[in-house]
Description:
- About 15% of the residues lie in helices and about 25% in strands.
- By secondary structure, it is an alpha+beta fold.
- The protein has a five-stranded mixed sheet.
- Strand 3 (about 45) and strand 4 (about 50) form a beta hairpin.
Amino acid sequence: MITVKLYSAIRKYGGKEVMFEYKKNLRVRDIVEELKIPIKEISIIILDHFDSTPDIMLDHEVKESSLIHLFPPMAGG
């Protein structure tokens, strides 16, 4: 199983946590598309303790027990 944790405004696409069945050649992009999250609403993706921006992370392949965190742009002080 693949665990996807959603944060802040992105939770409207599936709540705090969503589980996916592993499929061969599954990429982060496939999961984001399945959840119908517009890419412009994601600012940081963490995949198994490696984090970066969507343009770098979306095409990474996920493993059977991957943990993905999706964060929207945030502001604060």
